[in-house]
Every structure is written in structure tokens, then in C-alpha cells.
Amino acid sequence: xxxxxxxxVAPPARPRxxxxxxxEGRKADRRLGYALVAPVVVVLLAITGYPLVYNLWNSxxxxxxxxxxxxxxxxxxxNYTSMFGSSAWVAALERxxxxxxxxxxxxxxxxxxxxxxxxxxxxxxxxLRASILIPWxxxxxxxxxxxxxMFDPRAGFVDYFLGAxxxxxxxxxxxxxxxxxxxxxxxxxxxxKNVPFVAIILLAGLQVIPTEVxxxxxxxxxxxxxxxxxxxLPLLKPAIMVALIFRTLQAFLVFDVIYIMTGGGPGTSTxxxxxxxxxxxxxxxxxxxxxxxxxxxCVMALVVAAVYVRVLRPSA
Amino acid sequence: xxxxxxRRLTPAKVVREGAFYLGCLVVVAISLxxxxxxxxxxxxxxxxxxAGVGGSNGLLPSHLSWSAYIGDFANxxxxxxxxxxxIVAFATTVVTIIVASCAGYALARLNxxxxxxxxxxxxxxxxxxxxxxxxxxxxLLKDLNLLDNIFPLIVVYLVYTLxxxxxxxxxxxxxxxxELEEAAxxxxxxxxQALRKVVVPxxxxxxxxxxxxxxxxxxxxxxxxxxxxQTPGHFTAPLAIVTFGESQYQTFYNRIDAAVVIISIPIxxxxxxxxxxxxxxxxxxxxx
Lengths: 316, 288
Hints:
The complex is a heterodimer. Chain A has helices at residues 16-59, 78-85, 87-119, 125-137, 140-150, 157-164, 179-207, 211-219, 224-235, 237-252, 256-261, 273-283, 287-311.
């Protein structure tokens, strides 16, 4: 890959000593290369590899700080059994899968529409792009608090607007009163923040499709829909794959927005796998069962990421 | 798509163009109107918020009051978490740029063995579930007596920033013509001199893009902060905001929203002035 930009020189014409110097230079380069690349590998191994191994160890041991300094004894698969046997975990798994499925499908469709809009050259494209980038760039605490405000019965725009048009839903409490309505608000806040990123990835995919393809399709008499179905979508497949996997992982690991908006409520009805894992670690200080939950999250994330790396072989 | 074709207006075309611009308007409204609404709410006084939107003028605040902003700083000491966030985000950005520039250059240029494997590992690390890190790191920080301290966050946040920055800079260095550097080497410069005098100046835009993205990613963290920080004086800004509404029996959204407006402003400014770079940076790491 990194030979792509090498200058074209004819080796036989060069004197021998120069060639040897070059070879030694290359060796020195390589040593310098390892030194330069070492920090990134060491840091990332330390902050991801260490937790992975520690979680694995914890998941087979009793590690719970709420019982004082009890020894961390080996318990076999007990943590995994109690995780799979816990109705809270199974319910969180179901919720998380449902949320992921609905979010990914909805977000991909909306993002594809946005990407097609942004792909057109028109006055005001910069404004459109900036206005969708801002929701992506702000912290989740902003998107969550902003939609919590919007849906608040007192301070919110939604109930105010519904009241102004005399809609029967005008005095509904949305967050933390009703399971379905809480999920609606979480879903909106999450999509509002994450659709733009997917749209930007798809836009980049659209921009690498050569325009000749469309010209050819038009000359052959294809309608706009036909050229979209037969040309754009297949050529966009790599970008769609990347966006899909990014978004799937992100939705599957949803945590911030749940914590900030509902805290898992009403009751435990908006607890997701990541949220439950956080509670098990930080509130229950149970690092054994928590470790088992984390291992499950890692395995599931790894399956998705493995597909991603396969799709995305790096090239110069 | 010739100029003549485009200029000819048919009724169908007018409708289609109208629908397109209407669609754009809807997107802009959905993206930005909520910001207007929280800005509006942040300008209300506590009593106005207690009265509810129905009691005020609705879309416009009935009279402007900066009391929520003043209260956030005077009573809630929002300056402390704001300052903590700035320190952590800035330090994370600096460390990221140093580490990722070195690695990006080496991976693009220095013919190291296993460059592919290293790039794949970096990418994979970027996908590591953040929640799966907090348990073990909590135990580690507890043993090291570093819980409730903002400085470990600088290291931990590298998991957000290093993967995308390393990829971005590696792709950026790969685009700089090799001849520039070779010429300097032929003129007798050492590899490091060539790097400093020739490559670095050309690489500035890429480094700048990586810095913006790193700052945004570090500024936006919530999961690590909520897991490791315990006392309000050590909170980062996003964490502090969540606790603002907690102590009252009624949620004063004006106070929360004033803080939300404050932490959104630097990010919105970055996006408005640097959107091209951000878009380029976001997509550089993803595929090509």
C-alpha cells in the first residue's frame, strides 16, 4: 500500500554504494516507524485490552464491593448463569434488540434521503449541511435535555403546540409516565442526534460514484427511480454497509440518552443492556455479574465489527 | 445536464423544486427549532417556568431574564465543571495529536511490517464498547486512588479520539507526495529533519481536522464521567447539567437549558466555521 507514491527510478543505473545506503536507510526508517507507532498500540491495548482481560477474569469470580473486602473467589459460570437467568437482563436484551432494529431501519432511510438532498448542488446546501451537523456535534446531554424540555408538559413546545391546535393529547406527560411515550421521546432524541452522522457517511459514498454512470443510465432511457434502484443503491453498498454497522453498534450500546432522560424508568421499562451493565457496576458494585454482561456486549460488538473490518480493508 | 435543459421551467419542475426546498426547510427546522426553544426557555425566570408555557407568550419569552444564566454561575458554580471540561478536552486533544500524528506518519510512510494489522487493531479498539471498560477501569482507578479525579479521563478519552485520528492522519500523510520528502533526503536532510521541515507544514490541515474532531469527542463524553466522578467540584460540564435539575421538587428547565446553551455554543461555533473540514474528517476514517 505505501509503495504507491514511490518515485520511479531505474535501479541498475545507480551506483552500488548508494543502493546499500538506501537499504540501511530503510532499516533505520523501519526502526523509527516502530518507535512512532508504539504509543498508539500501547495506549489502546492498555485502555481496551486490559478491561477485556479483567472483565473476563471477573466474570468467573465473585467480585462485589458491597460485601466489604470478601475474597475474590472463583465461582465458575455462576455469574453467567445468574445473568442469563435474570429477568431484568432478558427484558433489557429484548428492549435493546427492538430499539436497535427500529432505530437502524428508520435512521438509515431518513439518512439516505438527507444524503440525496445534500448530494444535489443548490443554493443553501452549506446551510442544510451545517444545520444537520450541529445536532451530531453537540453532547448527548444536550440532545437529551433539549428533547426532554420540548416534551415537558409545562416547559415544552410539544404540549403547547398540541394545546394550541386543541389536540386531545395536549396535556400528556411523555417522559417517565408511560412506557411507550418514554420510548418515543428517547427514540426521537437519539435519531435527531445520530441520523446526521449516517447521512454524512452515505453522502461521502454518493460522492465517489462517478457521474458517467448516471449519464450512461440517462442515455439508455432510465427513469430517475430506475437509475436510483439499479445504479445508485448497488454502488452505494460499501457506504451503506459502513453506516449500518456504525449505527447498529451505536444503537445497541445506547446508554447516555437513557440515563439522562429516564434513568431507566418508568420502573425499569427503558433499561437497556448498557444501562443495566452500568448499574450493575456502579450502583450494585457487582463486578462479577457486570463482567459477564460486559463480555456479552463485547462478543456481540465483535461480531458486528468483524464484518466491518472485512468490508473495509484499508487501501492507500 | 446542460445549462439549457436546466433553465427551462415546466410546471412539473416548479412543483418538484418547490417540494425540494420545502423538504430542506423542514430538515433545517427540525434540526434548529429545538435550539431556539431551549434558548427561549433559558431566558425565562423561575416563576415563569413554574407558570408553564401556557401562562407566557408561547413562542416568545414574555420578558427576557438572564437570571437562569446568572444563577447557574453564582449558585450552581457552573464555571468549575466548565473549566474541568475545557482542561480535559484540551489535554486529550493535545495528546491525541502527538500520538496519532506519529503513528499516522509511520503507518503511511515508513514501510513497517504489520501496518495493516496495526490499522485493523486501531479500528477494532474504536469499536470497543465503552460500557465494558467502566467496570475494570473503576476498580483500577479505585486501587490507584484516582476515582473522582479528572486527570485519568484524559487517558480514557483516547479510546474515543485515537482510532479516528490515527486513521485520518494516516490517510492524510499517504496523500502527501513522497517526492517532497525524497528531495529533502537527497539534499542531505535526516528523516526527522525532512519530517519537520517538509512534511509537517503540508500536514497542518489534516492535523487541524483531527484536533477539532478530538476536541468534540472528548467534550461530549458522558459515560466515563458519570462512572468515575463523584463530587460536584470534579464534574465535567455534561455531568453537572444532569444534576442541575435534581435537587428541586420541580424541574427548572430554564436553569438546565441555560447551561445547555452554554456548552452548545463552542461546538456550534466549530461546526459553523469548520463544517467542510469536519465532514472531510468524518469520512476519511470510514472508508475509501
